[in-house]
Each structure stands twice: as C-alpha cells, then as structure tokens.
Amino acid sequence: MEILEKLVSYNTIKDKENKEIINYIEEKLLNLGFKTSYKGKYLIMQYGENPKVGFLGHTDTVEYIEGWKTNPFKLAEKDGNVYGLGTCDMKGGIAAFIESISKIDLTKLKYGIKAYFTYDEEIGFSGTYDIVNSNEEFPELMIFGEPTNNDYLVGGKGLLECELYFKGIKAHSSNPEKGKSANINAIKALNELNIFYENQIKNEKENYFEIPYTTMNIGILEGGSAKNSIPASAKACLDFRTIKDIHTKKIKEKLEDLDLKYDFEIKIIEEIKPFLNEIEFIKEGKTANFMTEASLIKDPKVKKIILGPGPVTAHEIDEHISIESYQKTIKQYKEIIEKLCN
Q: What is the DSSP secondary-structure string of 61-118?
C-alpha cells in the first residue's frame, strides 16, 4: 500500500499539490524504465515502442466534507478497507496501475505502454482536453482507472449541457403591461421542452445502459431581483445524458424552435457523444451512466475500458476501497497489458 498511501498524502483538491504528485508519479515510472514524453500540469510517460495499451488517471480529488472519522490525507486501514480522500476516485486506480506494471517483466513485451496523468477532472476536464487538443495519438486500447468495483465498463452515455438566457422587460409588478416577464417565458419554454422530452426522447431505450433512456435535468433556474418587479432576465442550466446521437440533434432542434417563440439565447457548454465498445476478451461488459474522461477521446479506432477498485464511494464521507478489490484491480490491469502487449 506504499504507493497508494503516498498518493493520498498529497492534497490535490483543485490541484493544490499537482506539481508534487506529478513529480512522485514520474519518479516511480522512471524507476520502472518509462520515459517522460511530456511534463507540465499533466504527465505523459511511455515504455517501449508502438504502445498497444494506455492508462489514464486524474490526480485531483473533490473537496472533503465534514464528518470524516479519519484524516482524509492519511491512509487508514480497518476491516479489510483502506480509507482516504481519493482512494476510490481515483488514486486507487493510479496506484494499482503502477503496481501492476511493477509485476510485469517489461523487457519481454513486444509492444509498449503509455500512461497519462491528468488534472482538473473533477471540475472541467482541463487536463484531458489539453491532451486531446494536442492531437495526441492514443494507443488502440485505453484503460481509465475510475472506480467500478472491478466491473469492466465498455460504454458511456453522451452529454449535452446548455444554458438558456431569457430576455424580458423590467417593470413594476403593479403594471405588468409595461413589462415582459423573462421568468414566465422560461417556465413556458421549459414546460414545452419537458413535454417534448417525455413524448419523443425518453420513451426510446437502449437496454445496455443501466438507466436505459436519455435523461433530462434542469439543474439551475434563476431569474428576477425582487418580488414586486417583473424580471428582465432569467437563466436555466440543462443537462441531458444521451443514449443516442440523434437525441442530441433532436433536442438542439427543439431548443431552436422554442427560441423563436420565447426569445432566449442558447449557449452549448458541452456536447459529447455516447460510446459503446466491442472488446473481444470482455464477455460481460457494462456501461457507465456517469461522465468520465473516456468520453472525451473521440477517435473511433481507440477502444476504451473504464475499470478500477471499489466499492464505489467517490465523493462520500470516509471514502474507501477494499484491499481485496484493490488487489484484484492490479491483477486485471496486469492481465490486460500482458494480453495485448505480448
């Protein structure tokens, strides 16, 4: 547990000790014969030529909330579990990867291995975007060390995230004819959008997803400045987790139709396609309902597996994984690397 203990000791909330954790990971991999391809806020390292397998892990964590029974930055063991901030999401996956390659005779591999360690996954995926935007050529199989309780996740939903800005005319509430309520427009538009979603989007299903339909969420709705003032502006933030590309297209078209009727501006914050891999050696793959860095790698030639230790306690008080699951993850990573790189 030395590697995991050291990773947990770094405070990487909002990448506070990003430099320190990157330096530590680089040192461990250099000692195993890897070479540094890029080092900045993110790190890329490679062993050998023509890498067939890649691993990607984010080094940052969420903030911890009050109520922890242990020190979040000190690994604690109890009843077969290890506790600490990031043990599950996802320093456990990173540590398991480093341990797995330390158990392989790398000199006998026919193909190389590449490793990516990113930052800012918990807020904006900046590290992964930096790598993708550099036109990086990823290996043909990428492992993402998110917590899955050792299940192989081979697919993920897409994401359409948008903000709607409604325009009105401010006036006193005692004389509504002089104004135009941005709030009323927002309510009417969102109601029509929800009816459209319920009738034309939600009823289409893909059963290989645990939640087998595209979801819609109005996460933020705000507008107005006083209870006796007609609001001149309102804002709605929407989040769709999509099972099909066509759903994204239909939702955007509906928003454009509603825009003409209710006078608002559409700002697309994020648009990511769903994906599903067919991987020969995985017979019972599952899919992820949550968003991971895997979705940001859009090259269709790259196969993606999301795989890491559990139980899945990400973002929870007393975040932990079981030692048994951690050891199983090491074995799983080792088996994949040996299968593809020999």
A: BPPP-TT-SS-TTS-EEETTEEE-TTTTTTHHHHHHHHHHHHTS-GGG-SS-EEEEEE
